[in-house]
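User: Some background: our group keeps a shared notebook of sequences we're curious about, and every so often someone picks one and asks for a predicted structure to add to the entry. Today it's my turn. The entry only has the sequence so far, pasted here. Could you supply the structure so I can complete it?
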Amino acid sequence: MVSGVLDIESETALAAPAAALAAVLRPGDTIALSGDLGAGKTTLARAMLRALGWAGDVPSPTYTLVQPYDLEAFPVWHVDLYRLEDPHEAEALGLFETEAALLIEWPERLGARLPADALRLHLAGSGDAPRHLTWTAPKAWEGRWPPLPPR
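Assistant: Of course. Here's the predicted structure to add to the notebook entry:
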């Protein structure tokens, strides 16, 4: 596993790491997005979907729990588990049967059910304050995340 931190000057600057993630995302990947309310999890997911070519609305899945996007390359599900009270409630969502790439907000609600090969991202900071994006990248993400520095 590889871990690290990236300092991001503002919420709008999340577009750059989102584009880097979108460029290496594959069907069946899971990205776990954790952080406090207002840290930028939904903003990062929206920016990833935009970078993947989605031009329509990107509503927060807080109440629907799963918002599917049928992109040209492969499907992506934006998932918000904030309202889950028990990890077993995730069974009904189909998260463990899909080949879609998953962008999961509040992944800690899954407990031990979060796939071991998930890229774990944590956002800290809110409002106008700078953000800190920390990650733990398992072997499945080797060579894809973190992005290589520009030459």
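Suggested note for the entry: Residues 53 and 72 are 8 Å apart (CA to CA). The mean pLDDT is 92.
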